[in-house]
Amino acid sequence: xxxxxxxxxxxxxxxxxxxxxxxxxxxxxxxxxxxxxxxxxxxxxxxxxxxxxxxxxxxxxxxxxxxxxxxxxxxxxxxxxxxxxxxxxxxxxxxxxxxxxxxxxxxxxxxxxxxx
Length: 116
Description:
- By secondary structure, the protein is an all-alpha fold.
- It has 3 helices and no strands.
- 84% of the residues lie in helices and 0% in strands.
């Protein structure tokens, strides 16, 4: 069960990283297009354009984290807590309280060390 939990977590982390990278690439493409457009007309990308793209990128990353990453991560943590609770692991219960989660993470670290 512990190995399956770790695999599911790794898969989610990989998926979210790929999606976040896609957001970055989208803005890299927008910057390249703006630079190309500016060079065609014999100018450079203005500071205003660069600032607008930078602000839009930051806002999209923040929205991605808030609307996509955090809900998925919280859901995964709750599933892991439930699974470990059902397996009888001490201190495991569904919680979002950071002190409880930190205690749970210490228990999981001990379990990882013992399983190696």
